Amino acid sequence: MHYTPKLAVLSLLTANAAAKTIRIDVGTNGKSFSPDNVTAAWGDTVEFYFSKSKHSVVAGDYNKACSPVGSGGFYSGTVQAKGDQPSVFQVNVTTTDPIFFYCSVGNHCKDGMVGVVNPSSDKTVDTFRSSAKSAGGNISPDAAFGGTLVKPSEGTAPKPSPGATGAAGHLTTSFGALSAAAAAAFLA
Question: Where are the transmembrane segments (predicted)?
Fold first, then answer.
């Protein structure tokens, strides 16, 4: 196959166009992530929208519930929205492996405030939640890392519609999709 500059530009724009933004509400309905089970591809962004209550999100170790994952991962720090605007913590997805997460505030994890990105058939949010309920306590990392806390207006994921279910109801095409469509039309 012969590659041209136009094809190279189109390839880059198309790769960016495939990225999605997935919204997860934190604490909107008490000690819960909503949804608590989503599917994301490499390059997608997960946005955690924090409500007025104090919560956090930590990438957790599936084999040691309510404890941070051994390497990599993320931690938002304790976050609380100010006023009616939620605080947003963005995490870039760099794997298709399961990414378990939990709230490390108080006993929230032990109370079942957990979730997963990319569950597998044997590692599910339900099995992680069951392990969390018998955990000795929650562990918080020393400082926030692995993501970006942004202003509410910089979050890009729309609030899910009341009838939306599953991860597909919480996905939105990134600006790159519009760019790729425009580039494809231009390069044709």
Answer: none
**Dihedral sign of CA atoms 151, 157, 161, 162 in order:** negative
The whole-angstrom separation of Cα 49 and Cα 87 is: 6
Strand partners, 28: none
Against a cut of 0.70, is the pTM above it? yes
Backbone angles phi, psi at 187, to 5 degrees: -80, -10
Q: How far apart are CA 81 and CA 48, in angstroms?
A: 12
Q: What are the phi and psi torsion angles at 84 (to 5°)?
A: -90, -5
Q: Report the distance separating Cα 162 and Cα 122, nearest Å.
A: 30
CA dihedral 55, 56, 59, 65 (to 10 degrees): -40
CA 76, 83, 27, 115 dihedral sign is negative
Q: In this prediction, what percent of the chain has a pLDDT beyond 90?
A: 61
CATH fold for the domain made of 20-157: Immunoglobulin-like (2.60.40)
